[in-house]
Design brief:
The complex is a heterodimer of chains A (279) and B (329).
Chain A (H helix, E strand, L loop, with lengths): L5 H4 L6 E12 L2 E8 L10 E6 L3 E5 L11 E6 L3 H8 L5 E8 L12 E7 L3 H13 L6 E8 L9 H8 L3 E7 L27 E6 L2 H14 L6 E4 L15 E2 L2 E2 H4 L2 E3 H4 L8
Parallel strand pairs in A: 7-8, 7-10, 8-9, 10-11
Antiparallel strand pairs in A: 1-2, 1-6, 2-5, 3-4, 3-6, 11-14, 12-13
Chain B lengths: L1 E6 H11 L4 E7 L4 E5 L27 E3 L10 E6 L1 H14 L7 H8 L1 E6 L25 E6 L2 E6 L2 H8 L5 E2 L7 H17 L6 H10 L2 H8 L7 H4 L7 E6 L3 E6 L20 H19 L10 H5 L6 H8 L1
Parallel strand pairs in B: 2-5, 5-6, 6-7
Antiparallel strand pairs in B: 1-8, 1-9, 2-3, 4-11, 7-8, 10-11
Helix pairs in contact in B: 6-9, 7-9
Classes of the chains: A alpha/beta (279), B alpha/beta (329).
The complex binds iron/sulfur cluster (2 copies) and FE2/S2 (inorganic) cluster.
């Protein structure tokens, strides 16, 4: 006799439908979509979803909203190509497809009792925002949370109110820098890594999270190692050409890893043997 | 595991009867090639048993080139696939690890695996580029298929391996158990002969693990040299029984079409922002070798190259991976 297993009825390729609520314009190229899924959607911070425009295509995003909210989620989309270009034209009410959540997110429960240093750049702020929500929720169990973030120009930094809000939360500190300044900017100029010189952190009781463009991840990691962080204290969120999210299609291979399933969050210790990681 | 034997004509008549309930594929030889074709009694004399190797890799029966993966599950007719060489049977190991992975089981692949009875066929001869034994794969099947077939004179001997194989054996009314060990001596002789031929053909070729070491250490010049003849056609990956990468294509009404893809095609790793780790042809070319001999072995238990040699036959640039390995040895 054949026993019907859950997996006999589940089709891993089928998306869940979600209605587009608000569309928030963050910058000329960046919008945040508020999605109302047809069913409760549960994810861990740092996990990603595949978001589909009907009949057009899908792309991977890490939700930028709080993992504690399950009746809606927010995805911040930078216009970089064909699919994201069409996403930017969508109006509230549009029906989109969600698959996921996929992969291994941040192991936040392991951060208990520690100081969490977050180094971010560019579009990396989207997943970091979700992580910050999760950390805020457990702040009684944390020593400290420090965010060092760099964007190209002041205008490229999205979620601006986030920084003043973070600085008003007990135990939270947030620092910003820009590569290229403009008239309104009176903060530091330079790469995000340089902000690490001005913070106070007890490295032996700390973890560092790095999320941003590949070049920043590389130099960020090198700097953290110089500061005395050990390989296993550094968490990297890797960006690859994710497609299936299921550890099958091969598009996200990074050495032996399927980034979609084994990651996207890795400790530096897990992947440092692999020269492919900075490619 | 046990053996049964059946007269060839009875075997073919039994298959004819099974056509009412099953789709049946057999390896048929014509003047150009050897490949699977639907079984027809009238064509039975063209079936080439124990001959390497069907042009189509076995994976194509389980991973169609293109399929709608949001459609209702097609429970189709059960199938009997006859004549897969052991290199192809072995290759299913990796596909199973990927597609039957507990966290995300591909329901289409699983259904096809479930509804297929696999009758492999032991190789009694070798082709130009066969090198299974160099990677520890036998040219005959002991596991992984439901039955293994050996044709000798007027008789078909069937090694019954799995429960599904046993079920099929029960439906072969004119088959008899083989109790006399002497009557199976021919099998050992055939196996030994094939293995000797393979050893001779591939003398000096490094084994699977050693190949991984060589590939890991290979300098850029090797990739530049061999890739200079590669035109990124993807024939090597398409024909490979273990290559199983794919692309998901969106169609209206949230339909998804899954289409076989390959790291040898430009743009395979391009991300939305435009970065493409495999943009340069030599990198792309190297990726296939790293995947097969270094990365997959680190992650999976099954082989990512079973030594079938098809990629060598298929390459229009006449690139022979084994020459590359020999150059580095
Ligand atoms: S890499 Fe070539 S020899 Fe190895 S299994 Fe694939 S097609 Fe066969
Ligand atoms: S078959 Fe030959 S030419 Fe075609 S992609 Fe493979 S190595 Fe390149
Ligand atoms: S995205 Fe398909 S294997 Fe990772």
């Amino acid at each position: 006799m054949m026993i019907l297993m859950a997996s006999d009825t589940v089709n891993i390729y089928k998306p869940l439908r979600a209605t587009l609520g608000e569309v928030i314009e963050e910058s000329p190229l960046i919008r945040t979509f508020v999605l109302i899924p047809d069913e409760k959607f549960v994810f861990k911070t740092g996990q990603f979803i595949e978001l589909a425009v009907d009949g057009v295509g899908e792309a991977p995003f890490t939700p930028s909203s709080s993992p504690l909210v399950t009746d809606r989620l927010e995805v911040t989309v930078m216009k970089t190509g064909y699919v994201t270009g069409i996403m930017h034209e969508l109006k509230p009410g549009a029906v989109m497809g969600i698959r996921g959540p996929y992969g291994r997110g941040y192991p936040v429960s392991e951060f208990k009792g520690k100081e969490v240093l977050i180094l971010g750049g560019g579009c990396g702020l989207a997943p970091i925002r979700s992580l910050l929500f999760a950390l805020e929720h457990m702040k009684d169990d944390l020593e400290k949370v420090i965010l060092c973030y760099g964007s190209k120009t002041p205008a490229d930094c999205i979620y601006k109110p986030l920084f003043s809000r973070l600085n008003s939360i007990d135990k939270f500190e947030a620092y910003r820098t820009v590569d290229v300044t403009d008239d309104d900017w009176d903060g530091p100029v330079g790469v995000a890594t340089a902000l690490l010189d001005q913070i106070k952190v007890k490295i032996e009781n700390s973890v560092a999270v790095v999320c941003g463009p590949p070049i920043m991840m590389k130099f960020g990691t090198i700097r953290l190692l110089e500061m005395g962080y050990r390989d296993e204290q550094i968490y990297l969120s890797m960006e690859k050409n994710m497609s299936c999210g299921l550890g099958k299609c091969g598009h996200c291979m990074m050495g032996e890893f399927f980034v979609c399933k084994d990651g996207p969050v890795f400790t530096y210790r897990e992947i440092k043997h692999n020269p492919e990681i900075w490619k | 595991m046990y053996y049964i034997s059946i007269k060839k004509e009875d075997w073919h008549r039994s298959l004819e009867k099974l056509l009412t309930s099953h789709d049946i594929f057999v390896p048929v030889k014509d003047e150009f090639s050897l490949d699977y074709e639907p079984f027809r009694l009238s064509q039975a004399e063209n079936i080439a048993y124990n001959t390497p190797k069907p042009a189509t890799p076995l994976k194509n029966f389980f991973l169609p080139v293109r399929e709608n993966v949001t459609s209702a599950m097609n429970n189709g007719r059960p199938r009997i696939i006859i004549g897969a060489p052991n290199c192809d049977v072995e290759a299913l190991g990796l596909l199973d690890e990927i597609y039957l992975d507990e966290a995300f089981t591909d329901p289409f692949y699983r259904n096809r695996r479930k509804s297929t009875i696999l009758v492999s066929s032991d190789c009694f001869s070798v082709n130009n580029h066969c090198h299974c034994t160099s990677y520890g794969v036998k040219p005959y099947t002991m596991e992984g298929a439901d039955m293994a077939l050996l044709s000798e004179g007027d008789y078909i001997f069937l090694k019954v391996i799995s429960d599904k194989g046993e079920e099929l054996a029960r439906q072969l009314s004119s088959a008899a158990g083989v109790n006399d060990p002497e009557s199976l001596l021919f099998a050992d002789q055939r196996h030994e002969k094939t293995e000797a031929l393979l050893a001779e053909l591939n003398r000096g070729l490094p084994d699977y693990q050693a190949t991984g070491e060589i590939i890991r250490r290979a300098g850029d010049h090797i990739w530049v040299k061999y890739a200079s003849k590669c035109v990124s056609c993807g024939a090597c990956t398409t024909i490979c029984p273990t290559c199983s990468c794919f692309l998901l294509i969106d169609k209206p009404d949230f339909k998804k079409v899954k289409q076989m893809d390959a790291c040898q095609y430009p743009g395979f790793e391009r991300v939305a922002g435009g970065e493409d780790a495999l943009f340069e042809l030599p990198h792309r070319f190297r990726n296939r070798y790293m995947c097969k001999y270094v990365w997959r072995p680190q992650k999976f238990n099954s082989l990512a190259c079973t030594g079938c040699g098809r990629c060598i036959e298929a390459c229009i640039g006449k690139i022979n991976k084994n020459e590359l390995f020999m150059e580095l040895t």
